[in-house]
């Protein structure tokens, strides 16, 4: 009797399946992005950047919602900007790095500066979602000459009074390994998107099936969430965010760039009162509330978000 051996899918096969799901997402929005890889830092790390549109350069840093293609719905509205969508280290097709809370700020600031250098971009506006907002603000703080405007999409761990969201605490916990296996399937991935304040948009098709399929492929075919868990465990302690991740008021007050935060009322991270206080500390901060939008508010209101971004960046 012969026993058949079932081998695990090869890395090349997984990447091919991921690329297929990503390509379907871009095609849904009628977009044909360009892709390039840059090696930055020492020791070097390989970062993927997806470029969409043409015009003034804007660097995007994503959150746990997904890597660069998570912004696809917004990219359709911003064709008059050169949008540079960076897969954060460990996400999508970028190499991973090891994070430490006490060095997080300068590390992510230098990483983005080096990415801009590799792309030949001297000066750019920056957009950050969720923890990507920390990336954007750290770049503005540590390398102010490189940054024009800052846009924060949704809330993130910018200040200590923002408690770690349930999803992040779960990822950091021993149950996080189980969760990462579960979200390789479409059902749990959909629940994760719904739990971020997007139930209505899933139901009425504003968040299309192709987005859910792509996000499931991120979980199933790449090591993105495994690397995200390693980062989260380095940044979250028993009492919340570890020192070094969030900003003090003195650091916020030193960020001179005009900064716009767009916050949806269905976003459970922080609260309008917290973000009003934070934007008041920033010398040129402004808060805009988007009624009914969730954590990834451009998925619910892409035209509204793009309109406010375009007016702000042009100013």
Write the layout of secondary structure elements.
Blueprint: H1 11-28, E1 34-40, E2 45-52, E3 57-61, H2 72-75, E4 82-86, H3 104-119, E5 124-129, H4 131-142, E6 147-153, H5 166-172, H6 176-182, H7 186-204, H8 209-221, H9 224-235, E7 236-237, E8 240-241, H10 249-253, E9 259-264, H11 272-281, E10 285-290, H12 297-300, H13 302-314
Parallel strand pairs: 3-4, 3-5, 5-6, 6-9, 9-10
Antiparallel strand pairs: 1-2, 2-4, 7-8
Helix pairs in contact: 1-8, 3-4, 5-6, 5-9, 7-8
Summarize the structure.
The chain is an alpha/beta fold and 315 residues long.
Question: What would you note in describing this structure?
Answer:
The chain is α/β, with parallel strands linked by helices and 315 residues long. It has a domain at 25-165 and 243-314: Rossmann fold, CATH 3.40.50.1820. Helix content is 44%, strand content 17%. The strands form 2 sheets. It has an 8-stranded mixed β-sheet with strand order 1-2-4-3-5-6-9-10, sandwiched between helices. Strands 7-8 form a two-stranded antiparallel sheet. α7 packs antiparallel against α8. The N and C termini lie far apart (75 Å).
Reported for the largest beta sheet, the result is: 8 strands, mixed
CATH architecture of one domain, please? 3-Layer(aba) Sandwich
Low confidence ranges:
1-7
Question: What is the overall shape?
Answer: globular
Counted beta strands? 10
Q: In the CATH hierarchy, what is the superfamily of one domain?
A: Alpha/Beta hydrolase fold, catalytic domain
Integer average pLDDT? 94
């Amino acid at each position: 009797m012969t026993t058949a051996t079932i081998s695990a899918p090869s890395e090349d096969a997984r990447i091919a399946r991921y690329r297929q799901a990503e390509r379907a997402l871009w095609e849904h929005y009628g977009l044909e992005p360009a892709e390039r890889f840059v090696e930055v830092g020492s020791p070097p790390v390989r970062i993927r950047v997806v470029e969409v549109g043409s015009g003034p350069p804007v660097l995007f840093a994503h959150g746990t919602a997904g890597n660069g293609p998570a912004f696809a719905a917004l990219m359709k509205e911003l064709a008059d900007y050169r949008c540079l969508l960076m897969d954060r280290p460990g996400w999508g097709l970028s190499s991973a790095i090891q994070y430490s809370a006490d060095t997080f700020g300068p590390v992510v600031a230098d990483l983005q500066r080096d990415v801009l250098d590799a792309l030949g971009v001297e000066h750019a506006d920056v957009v950050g979602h969720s923890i990507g907002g920390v990336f954007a603000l750290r770049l503005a703080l540590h390398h102010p000459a490189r940054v024009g405007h800052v846009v924060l999409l949704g809330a993130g761990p910018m200040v200590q009074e923002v408690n770690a969201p349930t999803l992040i605490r779960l990822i950091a916990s021993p149950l996080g390994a189980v969760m990462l296996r579960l979200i390789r399937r479409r059902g749990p991935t959909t629940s994760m998107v719904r739990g971020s304040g997007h139930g209505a948009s899933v139901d009425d098709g504003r968040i299309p099936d192709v987005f859910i399929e792509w996000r499931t492929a991120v979980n199933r075919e790449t090591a993105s969430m495994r690397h995200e868990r390693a980062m989260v465990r380095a940044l979250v302690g028993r009492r919340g965010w570890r020192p070094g991740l969030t900003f003090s008021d003195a650091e916020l007050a030193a960020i001179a760039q005009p900064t716009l935060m767009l916050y949806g009322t269905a976003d459970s991270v922080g609260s309008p009162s917290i973000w009003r206080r934070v934007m008041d500390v920033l010398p040129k901060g402004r808060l805009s509330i988007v009624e009914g939008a969730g954590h990834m508010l451009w998925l619910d209101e892409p035209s509204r978000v793009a309109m406010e971004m375009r007016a702000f960046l042009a100013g």
